[in-house]
Amino acid sequence: MLKLLLIANIEIYLIFQHIDWNLKSPQMSSDVEMEDRDKEPAINIPSTSGHRSGRRDAVQDRKNAPWIEKFRPQTLDEVAAHTEIIDTIKRLTARLPHLLFYGPPGTGKTTTVLAIARQIYGSAMQNMVLELNASDDRGIDVVRQEIQDFASTKTIFSNKFKLIILDECDAMTRDAQMALRRVMEKYTRNARFCLICNYVSKLIPAVQSRCTRFRFKPLQEEFVRPRLQHVVEQEGVKLGPGGMEALIALGSGDMRRSLNILQSCHMAFEKVDADAVYLCTGHPMPRDIEEVVRLLFNASFNDAFEGILELQVNKGIALADIVREVHPFILCMGLPIKVKIALVEHLADCEHRLASGTNEKLQLGGMVGAFVKAREEVVKAAQ
């Protein structure tokens, strides 16, 4: 009986609660509708703040990017030097063969092939190009899986071939190169390969014969100087006396190296002059090398040995750097041929021994002794 009374009281309580809720619900529903109407504009009006922030981030990233990427040419017309190669490639763009670019680093090989890809595919470049650095992925599994999977598929909405770029392919194993040869033959209708390397002799002949080869030689000063001047003007770099000449000399035809040196000097010094360039790179100053050459050809054995040793200690110059920088002086001097041959041969032996970890003082003594003998030979030849 008590249970029935308790259940009845609970039902009555719930009924009154339901009535009270119905009496209040019109006002509450209207409040909810008002809140929804207040929120509707925020939902329906698209916000562009995300796009603006994305553009700002992209601009900021480009501003802070290394100069070798920031000023990388985007089209074939912007590529410095290699006029003959660029003109030939422009004519081959419609029916592009397999390409093999080889030559020293920093001469525009990767830049050229990326410009080709942009010219062919435009905005669809990301879907049509596979770029691999063969120094990292150089095994046969990469050729059989990643490269073969990409080359074997064909795009639905485009009749263009795909482009596979293998950078530093001279680091690939021999088995990987053998597998690559078969992939290049089998999927020629769907894909084209562009191989980039520094040493073409490390590629097997079967791969070389399937490509049209182009050699990129070191850039000449007439092409390096305008590009560096453009970067200097764009970045507001203050050039000092001899700064541009030092950048070109230390770059040795490598545009990437010259730009890296320029950016490093700009960050470390207020003015980029010759002294700043040599200090930033750790190369010995030209005047120090001239002093070494003067001692070697004019001072006695003891004076030359002590003078060069003191210069090494005070300026922090390694003997290997001295050997490398003295070599051009010997070739430019008017010495007898036999004397030149003997000196160059000794410098080569000295550099080889230094690379093997021998004592620097012993090698310095041997080098000074070789120059003393060379002076005696010059005197005998003059008599």
UniProtKB/TrEMBL annotation:
It comes from the Eukaryota. The keyword Nucleus applies. GO terms for cellular component: DNA replication factor C complex; nucleus. Its main location: nucleus. Heterotetramer of subunits RFC2, RFC3, RFC4 and RFC5 that can form a complex with RFC1. Keywords: ATP-binding, DNA replication, Nucleotide-binding, Nucleus. Gene3D superfamilies: 1.10.8.60, 1.20.272.10, P-loop containing nucleotide triphosphate hydrolases (3.40.50.300). GO terms for biological process: DNA repair; DNA-templated DNA replication. Residues 95-222 form the AAA+ ATPase domain. It is found in: Nucleus. Residues 55-64 have a biased composition (Basic and acidic residues). Belongs to the activator 1 small subunits family. The keyword Transport does not apply. GO terms for molecular function: ATP binding; ATP hydrolysis activity; DNA binding; DNA clamp loader activity. This is AAA+ ATPase domain-containing protein. SUPFAM superfamilies: P-loop containing nucleoside triphosphate hydrolases, post-AAA+ oligomerization domain-like. Residues 32-64 are annotated as: Disordered.
